[in-house]
Design brief:
The protein contains four helices and nine strands. The chain is α+β, with helices and mostly antiparallel strands. The strands form two sheets. A seven-stranded antiparallel β-sheet has the order 2-3-4-8-7-6-5.
Length: 190
Amino acid sequence: MRTHRTLAALILLAGQLLAAPPARAQALPDCPAPTSAEIRRAEEGRTDQPPRGARAIAGLRLGHLPAGFSWGQVGVSTHDGMTEYGYLWSDDRDDVDRRHRSLWVRVACWPEATGPAKLRTAPFLEGTFTGDVRRVKVGKRTVLTKEGDGALGHGRYAGWVEREGVMITVMASRPLVRELNEIIKGITLR
């Protein structure tokens, strides 16, 4: 009987060591990672009314957050060796209304992210950098941009590699496009 208990304890210990690590542990060093509570909020599709502020994404700060949002929602996804963690700010207008105000900021942790060209091959679930993509300088950052389309909605989509293994993307709806450079310049990782 004692042998069976010892064997069972060893099997449990081995299972714990071999089990997949939680999403927080899968993030790269120096890459913002969602907490367990954030992962639960994303899975449940919960919204914040009013939306969170400039520090809605743990480890990232927005130096410029436009006004006029009525709700927000955290998003978390782990797939294909990438962890995506972001926040969507939005107003209550219909998505097809050209006056609709929304801002989606996302941090993607992916070991293969070494430069702007890698944004084109990154396995994002939404918001890929294919088609008519422009390369521009915003402050000291080399940023890829494109017009929003499909699931992204109207506006402009931008992304860059902040540091090796860490990409940041921003989707600004049409009313916020004129503020996009200021939003990008104001983003800092902690």
